[in-house]
Design goal:
Blueprint lengths: L3 H16 L2 E6 L5 H10 L4 E6 L1 H10 L13 E6 L3 H14 L4 E7 L2 E4 H9 L3 H47 L1
Antiparallel strand pairs: 1-3, 1-4, 2-3, 4-5
Helix pairs in contact: 1-3, 4-5
Length: about 180
């Protein structure tokens, strides 16, 4: 029979997996408490970094329907549970790992899809959600401006053509 404290820990981790848009597994061996505190701050407000027990976390992940991480639960493991923008947290992990080579990104999961360490680094290279949305809005605005120009050009061209026809008729009428 499972001990109540372990059952509560599994239930809490299961909730974190279910309520997170992404989870990134890391190995933190060799990092000091101060460095872990700095890492937690660098992840942003929408991520929670927790040192976890492999067996309990594996059970919790499986209960949350995530079975693709089973091979990553070895050695000292910590999980970054991301509830907001996963790009921001991935950037925080990548930048911290550059300065602290003891932090190793093992892999993770993004909205149910397994990610390798390389895919998480590619995710970190993306621009933030806000920047991408503003670029999209700019593209829509540009397309609308182009459409407006086309619609405005059609009547203008028609008026010029009609004026040219009138002038030609006037020339022909005056020449007769």
């Amino acid at each position: 029979m499972a001990r109540p404290d372990k059952a509560a820990a599994v239930a809490e981790l299961t909730d974190k997996f279910r309520n997170s848009s992404a989870a990134v597994l890391t190995e933190y061996r060799g990092l000091t408490v101060a460095q872990l505190k700095t890492l937690r701050r660098s992840l942003g407000e929408n991520a929670q970094y927790a040192v976890v027990k492999n067996t309990l976390t594996k059970i919790a992940a499986n209960e949350a329907g995530i079975t693709t991480l089973d091979d990553l639960f070895n050695g000292p493991t910590a999980v970054a549970f991301v509830t907001g923008d996963p790009v921001e947290s991935a950037k925080g992990l990548r930048d911290f790992a550059k300065d602290n080579p003891n932090l190793v990104i093992k892999g993770g999961v993004l909205e149910g899809k397994a990610l390798s360490a390389d895919e998480i680094k590619k995710l970190a290279d993306l621009e933030s959600r806000e920047v991408l949305l503003s670029k999209l809005a700019g593209a829509f605005k540009a397309k609308q401006s182009q459409a407006a120009s086309v619609f405005q050009a059609l009547p203008t061209k028609l008026v010029r053509t009609v004026d040219a026809l009138r002038a030609k008729q006037a020339e022909q009428g005056g020449a007769e």
